[in-house]
Amino acid sequence: MERTILKPRFKEAPHFKNFWETGNGKQLIEFSGAKVSFKDFDKFSHYYYDVDEIGDQVVKDIYFTQSFPKASKQIETYIRNGITENDKISESARSLFEQTQTIPEWLDHDLIKSGAELCMRCNVDSLISLRDYCLIGGYDYAYLNKPLIATEALKKGAVKRLSETLDFWVNVTRTDSLLIHQKGYEFAIKTRLIHSYARLSIKKHYKDWDTENWGEPINSWDMMATYIGFSLVFLYSLHKLGNTFSEKEEKGLFHLWKYVGYLLGIPEDLLPNDKKQATEYFYLWTSVQPPSDKDSILLAHSLLNESLENPILKFSFQRRNLRYLHICCTWFLLDDDVCERLEIPKVKYKNVFPRSKQLFNKIYESLLSREVQIKKGNKDQMKVLNDYLNITKNSNFH
User: Fold this and answer.
1) Which of 115, 229, 261, 393 lies in disulfide reach of 134, CB 3.0 to 4.6 Å?
2) Residue 234: exposed, middle, or buried by beta-carbon count in 10 A (0-12, 13-18, 19+)?
């Protein structure tokens, strides 16, 4: 089959131009000092049809040849104990673990530590940024969401989906968690294989997959965009909410996600080193994505209504109030155009809570030392994660 030649097909579309000329994209350019153009489009666009072939082969060799629990146990053994020359394992598994247990020359553990500390130090603002900017903002890119729809993520429910995302994010952003055999490293490898398992399942069972327009399921370019969400978009959201960060913390955040991307099998030349590079890469990718469709709206509303479904808060008025606060933050962080496309409800006094966060953060940072902020942030984030894990573990959430 002839390989599709991709073009920046939406570069003249209103949603693309508005985002980059007057909206959040313009703010990202100003924030990062990026010089955006299409001169490198062909250098990156072929990754729209590129996938993690090593991960896919591991799934075929291990998960498709035995029961899922047995396969998972085998992979966990390799993750926690490593592999030796004498281990009798498939060539694909050997390739995967040799790659992920080889420390790249560029890796700087001290920088990763600074990035992890920033994630913890910003406490609940980190979780607000992930949910009300990174996740819900990602739903505006219609083609990016197609694997979620194909794998019936809506049936799974937003509580479970959010719990899994939070579990991954918290575990890869703790101090030293990305060292080989540690919890963050384990989450990265397992997530990589989940992506491969989902991709192979989609290709086998979802006959309507439109490869030419949507790219390969969970392709390398979409993966790049997702992890730019965890770095660039996340960082800018913290900035909008009034958090400050040092140059080292900022560099550390990008370095942390570059290494997570490396462990996940994303090609290294797709992994940005800083906010300027990330913005320039993101600009190119957004030119192949149409705006929200009906699936985007369903995903966004599922996430908004998660607060009403989630029994962590006991009383219904508490849940309604939490939903209102998330809606306020979504309107504050995202462009009005995006919120309208996603049909985010309009609410009164929507800027009061986000503006009060800005003031609170200014006072909070002046009163508490960096070390205390990190310790408190870690404790509070772990509590939120444990609440979610307890709910999804001890309930009928699918």
Assistant:
1) 229
2) buried
| 375 belongs to a structural domain | yes
Alpha-carbon span 389 to 382, nearest angstrom: 10
Q: pLDDT tens digits, the chain, 398 residues: what are they?
A: 456 789 999 999 999 999 999 999 999 999 999 999 999 999 999 999 999 999 999 999 999 999 999 999 999 999 998 887 777 889 999 999 999 999 999 999 999 999 999 999 999 999 999 999 999 999 999 999 999 999 887 777 889 999 999 999 999 999 999 999 999 999 999 999 999 999 999 999 999 999 999 999 999 999 999 999 999 999 999 999 999 999 999 999 999 999 999 999 999 999 999 999 999 999 999 999 999 999 999 999 999 999 999 999 999 999 999 999 999 999 999 999 999 999 999 999 999 999 999 999 999 999 999 999 999 999 999 999 999 999 987 544 33
Structure tokens at 331: 């309107």
- For residues 274 and 271, what is the distance between their CA atoms, to the nearest angstrom? 9
Cβ neighbours of 37 (radius 10 Å): 10
- If you search the block for the tokens 């479904």, which residue do you land on? 309
DSSP label of 233: I
């500390």: which residue's tokens?
117
Domain contains 70: no
Query: What spatial distance separates the first Cα and last Cα of the chain, rounded to whole Å?
Result: 39
User: Among 138, 150, 281, 270, which residue's Cα sits nearest to residue 214?
Assistant: 150
Report CA 303 to chain centroid distance, whole Å.
15
Total domain count for the chain? 1
Alpha carbon 38 to its chain centroid, in Å, reads: 25
Burial grade of 296 (CB within 10 A; 0-12, 13-18, 19 or more): buried
Range of the domain at 196: 14-50+101-393
Among candidate residues 197, 184, 148, the one with its CA nearest the CA of residue 262:
184
Q: In this structure, is residue 107 part of a structural domain?
A: yes
Contacts of 314 (CB under 8 A, 6+ apart): none
**Whole-structure pTM value:** 0.95
CA 267 to chain centre: 17
CA distance 244 to 377: 15
55, part of any domain: no
